[in-house]
């Protein structure tokens, strides 16, 4: 949450709430593979989806959504952070000269093509995979190898969530789900149904 800002030279800063849990990546790194309880996976995924749905409702593309840029509060709530390369959708254009993180980057960004909110949806799918596995995507690859693998490799999780992950990680942007209010409400229903099954 935004608290305050200072823009009086020479000090430029933004003050936000302190999130004592550190990054989601740090938390997942401390877990055994495939050990995060499904109920927690669902809670974290919904928090991330809510944050991204809000950004997209404001026509903002994050463009660097990954577990390192998701911060945890004491109550395990998630906040989206690091807006250093975010942009308004109308001003994003292509990814020429863009420096993001290949393991989470949508294929169209790697290829420096025009992109939309769907790049965040792709990254959200990778984060879902991380939540389910507690592993780093393409961990055994160099960044260049990961960039190639992004558009070639399908990441599987539990069968119940595999469809959702794939719907976010389709190579073709127009076939990815969107994080709009309707899709978000369907996600909530889907996830609640999953919880009731376990």
From TrEMBL:
One of its GO terms (molecular function) is ATP binding. It comes from the Eukaryota. SMART domains: S_TKc (SM00220). Pfam families: PK_Tyr_Ser-Thr. Signal peptide: none annotated. InterPro entries: Kinase-like_dom_sf (IPR011009), Prot_kinase_dom (IPR000719), Ser-Thr/Tyr_kinase_cat_dom (IPR001245), Ser/Thr_kinase_AS (IPR008271), Ser_Thr_protein_kinase (IPR050167). Residues 1-198 form the Protein kinase domain. PANTHER family: SERINE-THREONINE PROTEIN KINASE, SERINE_THREONINE-PROTEIN KINASE HT1-LIKE. This is Protein kinase domain-containing protein.
